Amino acid sequence: MRTQVGIVGAGPAGLMLSHLLHLQGISSVVLESRSRDYVEHRVRAGVLEQGSVDLLRATGLGDRLDREGLRHEGIELRFDGESHRVAMTELTGRAITVYGQQEVVKDLIAARLAAGGTILFSAEATRLSGLESPSPVVHYRYEGRDEELHCDFVVGCDGFHGVSRSAVPDGVLHTYERTYPFAWLGVLAAAAPAVDELIYAHHERGFALYSMRSPEISRLYLQVPADEDIADWPDERIWAELRTRLETVPGWSLNEGPILEKAITPLRSFVVEPMQWQRLYLAGDAVHIVPPTGAKGMNLALADVALLGDAFAAWYADGRTDLLDDYSRTALRRVWRAQQFSWWMTSMLHRLDADDPYEAKLQSSALRYLTTSPAYATSLAENYVGLPAV
């Protein structure tokens, strides 16, 4: 098979890039190792920055988002038995929208298929070749056969464990990473949210986050040790711990309900430089991962491919190479801004060392300053809703 841009991975990054290329008259084929059902139902991020919302609307994907997305103009911080609101829209003029990653993926798949786009599900990319030539090849396994996708460029949107990044020769890429000594226990519950905006809670027993996916579904998280076993967390223990960490404000209580899903996810920071080599361009989790505290993962992936969409459009329309050449440098500015913000939020809100009371006092001081200083609060709000340009 032959196309102009071969895309490995049908997450938000790969699908959005395919959609952007289609709008510019550029052909693409998306290869996805998982089934369509799996991709459309895996629960991941749920917070869209203002820029991501603007991108979806500008490309014709805003209808269901506008109907079902939950616009939030602030977030709540809880610490020392107090509640404080950061009024993001008042401070920045922008907002966030809660709309699950799986919903973005559903919208993108529907749009690509309606336009006659090619997405091959259960098609596992096994290796890349010819990346230094004008016609690289993606080798993949599909319906029991070994197949080849020939293209002008390859874009790897296949996540941390995908084959794309490993196709780059040794010594070219530089890795920067940090592993945190804790994880998030996340649950999806059939319980109407008891709040209108996200709650970030700093507690002596660890961090907690109250989020939502719809008016009927809550998404909640607890900080737990990195080596924790989900089998040790029956539903009753989860709800008890959530009550302890979140019900610290008089007169407020959780809404509880059946837990639909639960899992433990380690926290890490990870960046690879550069994000391109020869005819291969990397985007999303294939080259950067952030702790979810700052809600940046999906937004960074969409920002990456927005750059690539413009760069490929310039190359195919006018033969311009400057945007492709500058892709990594330009994308990494936003990536590192998001890395710093996510690290800062994580360090300020999580219990880093349960035996260090000095550290806990520093965190409380930082949170109190944040909630009393308009300048400090504006910095958080600007980063959280997404900086227009970095």
UniProtKB/TrEMBL annotation:
Pfam families: FAD_binding_3. Keywords: FAD, Flavoprotein. Gene3D superfamilies: D-Amino Acid Oxidase, subunit A, domain 2 (3.30.9.10), FAD/NAD(P)-binding domain (3.50.50.60). Residues 2-342 form the FAD-binding domain. InterPro entries: FAD-bd, FAD/NAD-bd_sf, RIFMO-like. PANTHER family: P-HYDROXYBENZOATE HYDROXYLASE, TRK SYSTEM POTASSIUM UPTAKE PROTEIN. This is 4-hydroxybenzoate 3-monooxygenase. It comes from Micromonospora fiedleri.
